[in-house]
Amino acid sequence: MEPIKIALTKGRTEQQVRPLLEASGIDCQGLRNKGRKLIFDDDPRYEFILVKAPDVLTYLNNGTVQVGIVGSDILDEQVNFQYAMLNLSVGKCRFVLASTADFDPQQQRRKIIATKYPNITKRYFDGIGEDVEIIKIEGSVELAPLTGLADAIVDIVETGNTLRENHLKVYARLQPVNTKLVVNRLALRQYRSQIKTLITNLQAADQKAAQSNVKEWTK
Ligand SMILES: Nc1ncnc2c1ncn2[C@@H]1O[C@H](COP(=O)(O)OP(=O)(O)OP(=O)(O)O)[C@@H](O)[C@H]1O
Ligand SMILES: O=P(O)(O)OC[C@H]1O[C@H](OP(=O)(O)OP(=O)(O)O)[C@H](O)[C@@H]1O
């Protein structure tokens, strides 16, 4: 049987999802000691490729891979993307509108908002009936209001440490984020039982891990 090809987001997502893949019975030896390798086929049932988050969707839409593992931030930033099959309990964070303490959300002048996520930002401001100028930046988003590039930012917050250490405040909470498993629709028909097995096992491993995290917290 041909292996299922899975595009896994490198970085945080890969680190958080690998233990779940292992707990679901997948051999991830190569991913553990990966060096500069990008393709991993230790388990004959699966072939993992490591890619940047937005590229997961490129590989998936193109049909080069059957499955993708990616944050919902990346999915929400796309328009009309609908293949999410499994919500994982990792990669949990939230979009917020943040700025310096002297930011006035009611300011009369048209606001300038910096973000890595222009579509999510536009949807949020459209939703509250406000027209803003959006500047797309690629990282260290928190710098934008500190340097005068923008009035405020829309970005992801997890622990809040980055905002705190840079003296920024949350002005609005937007949608939550978590890691999702997404499937190419055509592949779902072709590989139904293999994909079903993957999802069932991963879901069980994720639920078990989430429960033991709750226990850790309540100890
Ligand atoms: N602080 C965070 N806490 C938890 N999850 C996060 C956090 N920041 C990002 N994520 C999630 O993890 C995914 C990957 O984030 P990661 O920081 O590894 O890459 P990135 O910031 O998109 O890219 P880069 O490799 O350029 O830094 C994001 O798409 C999002 O779903
Ligand atoms: O609330 P915290 O736990 O501090 O996490 C939030 C930070 O994490 C992400 O950045 P990332 O580490 O991906 O770096 P980047 O600025 O290069 O995107 C996000 O853009 C925030 O800057």
What can you see in these coordinates?
Strand 2 (39-40) and strand 3 (46-51) form a beta hairpin. The longest helix is centred in the last third of the chain and has 27 residues, at 192-218. The protein folds into 2 domains: 4-91 and 178-218, D-Maltodextrin-Binding Protein, domain 2, CATH 3.40.190.10; 93-176, Periplasmic binding protein-like II (D-Maltodextrin-Binding Protein, domain 2), CATH 3.40.190. It is built from 9 helices and 11 strands. By secondary structure, it is an alpha/beta fold. The chain has a 6-stranded mixed sheet, sandwiched between helices. The protein starts with a strand and ends with a helix. Adenosine-5'-triphosphate is lined by residues 9, 11-13, 53, 71, 73-74, 91, 93, 139, 156, 158, 177.
Notable characteristics:
27% strand, 2 domains, binds adenosine-5'-triphosphate, nucleotide-binding, 11 strands, transferase, D-Maltodextrin-Binding Protein, domain 2, ATP_PRibTrfase_HisG_short, EC 2.4.2.17, 219 residues, alpha/beta, binds 1-O-pyrophosphono-5-O-phosphono-alpha-D-ribofuranose, six-stranded mixed beta sheet
**CATH fold call of the largest domain:** D-Maltodextrin-Binding Protein, domain 2
Give the radius of gyration: 19 Å
| Secondary structure tally, helices | 9
Q: Briefly, what CATH class of the largest domain?
A: Alpha Beta
User: Ions, cofactors, ligands: which are bound?
Assistant: adenosine-5'-triphosphate, 1-O-pyrophosphono-5-O-phosphono-alpha-D-ribofuranose
β-strand number? 11
Query: Largest sheet, if any?
Result: 6 strands, mixed
**What gap, in angstroms, lies between the N and C termini?**
45 Å
The rough form would be described as elongated
Strand content: 25-35%
H/E order of the elements? Answer: EHHEEHEHEEEHEHEHEEHH
CATH architecture of the largest domain: 3-Layer(aba) Sandwich
The number of distinct structural domains comes to 2
Strand order of the largest sheet: 2-3-1-4-11-5
Which range best describes the helical content: under 10%, 10-25%, 25-40%, 40-55%, 55-70% or over 70%? 25-40%
Pathway: Amino-acid biosynthesis; L-histidine biosynthesis; L-histidine from 5-phospho-alpha-D-ribose 1-diphosphate: step 1/9
Pfam families: HisG
Subunit structure: Heteromultimer composed of HisG and HisZ subunits.
GO molecular function: ATP phosphoribosyltransferase activity
